[in-house]
Specification:
The structure is a single chain. The chain has two domains: 7-285, Fic-like fold, CATH 1.10.3290; 293-371, Winged helix-like DNA-binding domain superfamily/Winged helix DNA-binding domain (Arc Repressor Mutant, subunit A, Orthogonal Bundle), CATH 1.10.10. It has 15 helices and five strands. It has helices at residues 32-54, 58-76, 83-87, 98-117, 125-136, 174-186, 194-208, 215-229, 241-246, 248-261, 264-300, 307-319, 325-332, 336-348, 367-371; strands at residues 7-11, 16-20, 322-323, 353-354, 364-365. A hairpin with a 4-residue loop joins β1 (7-11) and β2 (16-20). α2 runs parallel beside α12 (307-319). The chain is globular, with a radius of gyration of 23 Å. It starts with 6 loop residues before the first strand and ends with a helix.
């Protein structure tokens, strides 16, 4: 790592762009500090992965993790949609907030589409472009060639190339560099721990910046996709955007340190600490979910004849913790008056919380569950 060279700045006339060195090559790791962090990160990921085997109906809870990831990853890019807003339908969102809401919904679709596509496609430029196309479909970046690598120069920070914080490689280099990145992903002869490989992949992708828009969100998606494809996690349980968002300045600084000072060690340390902290947080969330499930089930049992329908409602709430009487009626087959009564019972025992304050069109949160993700 001491001999690591990130790349070179190359003059493009009126500005200099950075062309990163190719990454599909031999890497040597001989830093005990990094090795110790790797050991901790592997241990926490192993603990987290156990939940995918031992937690009943874990896919219900993953959907909330995805929603949290979507709001946090989009927040880094400047959107202001929170978890509660992301759960609402479009018509329930104020018109001036719908652009942000739609970007978050696209992120959810893009992540789910990419995860499902791993059954048929390898993690590749093709999959990355497909994911990007879903991400930008019909939102603010829809005119910036969704699903296509850029054919013009872009930049990061600043109002123009003249005052940019960082200028990625020219578009003529994108295909070569993305090809190299794809080879690195699948080169099993490179004996480098997977967590360092994905740290390098994320750094390299953000440095190439192959799209005109959406690079940050796609780059963060790559982390989860890699962990799932390589079997490090059986389910998509780990998302780093919350850690990156809370440490946003350090995130950008450490990426730039690699380019400006060839300091990849600091990036590795930051990335591995993110893995450790995020895995621990996810483990705590799953522990709290299981405690909540037990508490909620004990309350539901007191509903007598309504217990069966109440369980069906609560099961759906773990996937989408927002409901109303009409949704309860559709789910259970109860008449609307009976659905209202069941909702009232669930509110009385502290499972549902009414959020509109209106006499009609009332909406209810599964508030205790939402709080676990905030």
């Amino acid at each position: 790592m001491e001999k690591f060279k990130a790349g070179n700045y190359v003059s493009q006339g009126t500005f200099k762009s950075f062309i990163p060195a190719e990454i599909n090559r031999v890497w040597r790791l001989d830093d005990m500090e990094i090795i110790e962090l790797l050991s901790q990160a592997d241990r926490q990921l192993g603990r987290l992965d156990m939940y995918s085997e031992h937690t009943p109906n874990i896919d219900l809870f993953i959907s909330m993790h995805v929603i949290k990831e979507a709001t946090q990853s989009s927040k880094i890019e400047g959107t202001k949609t929170n978890i509660e807003e992301a759960l609402k339908d479009r018509e329930e969102i104020a018109k001036e907030q719908r652009d942000d809401w739609e970007e978050v919904q696209n992120y959810i679709k893009a992540l789910n589409t990419a995860i499902n596509s791993l059954d048929e496609l390898p993690l590749s430029s093709r999959l990355i472009r497909m994911t990007h196309k879903v991400l930008l479909q019909g939102v603010r970046g829809k005119h910036k060639n969704p699903g296509q690598f850029r054919t013009s120069q872009n930049w990061i920070g600043g109002a123009s190339l003249s005052d940019a914080t960082f200028i990625p490689p020219p578009h003529s280099e994108v295909a070569r560099l993305m090809g190299d990145l794809e080879k690195f992903i699948h080169n099993n002869e490179i004996r480098l721990p997977h967590l360092l490989k994905i740290a390098i992949i994320h750094y390299q992708f953000e440095t190439i910046h192959p799209f005109l828009d959406g690079n940050g969100r796609v780059g963060r998606l790559l982390i989860t996709l890699y962990l799932v494809e390589k079997g490090i996690l059986k389910k998509p349980l780990l998302y780093l955007s919350d850690f990156f968002e809370r440490n946003r300045e350090l995130y950008y600084q450490n990426l730039m340190k690699v380019r400006s000072a060839n300091d990849i060690k600091q990036w590795f340390k930051f990335f591995l600490v993110g893995i450790i902290e995020t895995a621990k947080g996810s483990i705590e969330t799953f522990d709290n979910i299981m405690k909540l499930q037990k508490e909620v089930d004990e309350r539901i049992q007191k509903l007598g004849a309504r217990t069966s329908n109440a369980r069906a409602v609560v099961s759906r709430l773990y996937q989408r913790p927002l409901t109303n009487a009409q949704k309860v009626s559709d789910l259970t087959g109860l008449s609307l008056p009976s659905a209202y009564k069941l909702v009232e019972e669930l509110e009385n025992i502290g499972i549902l919380k009414e959020i509109t304050g209106a006499k009609r069109g009332k909406q209810y949160w599964f508030d205790a569950y939402i709080e676990l993700f905030k």
